[in-house]
UniProtKB/TrEMBL annotation:
Coiled-coil regions, chain positions: none
The name this protein goes by in its record: LYR motif-containing protein 5
Domain Complex 1 LYR protein: from-to ranges: 7-58
Organism ancestry: Eukaryota, Fungi, Fungi incertae sedis, Mucoromycota, Mortierellomycotina
InterPro entries, alphabetized: Complex1_LYR_dom, Complex1_LYR_ETFRF1_LYRM5, ETFRF1
GO biological process: negative regulation of oxidative phosphorylation; respiratory electron transport chain
Family recorded in the similarity comment: Belongs to the complex I LYR family.
Gene giving rise to this polypeptide: LYRM5
GO cellular-component term (any): mitochondrion
Amino acid sequence: MSAPTRQRVIALYKQLTYLGREYPAGADYFHQKLKSAFLKNKDLTHPDEIQKRIDLGDYVCKEIEAMYHINKYRAMKKRYYEDATEESIQSKLENTDWANGSSKK
């Protein structure tokens, strides 16, 4: 493995370790999976195969970041829209006259 590739693999491992701190299943679970994935591929020597694995790692980083953004958005939405409870939605549905397309008053 060349020096730039080695540095990229180490940087990817560090980035994934950092992203795994907030993983929903737990940081220990994520770290175990991460370590086993890297150890499984430690004997790769072909540059194309190594690059495929690096690209896959970059994709995983993007997916984890997207998951965190979605969770953050859902938490923020839950804080600001607590009024929209199931009961209020149900009462709105019950007060609607579906045949005439209007609401009962």
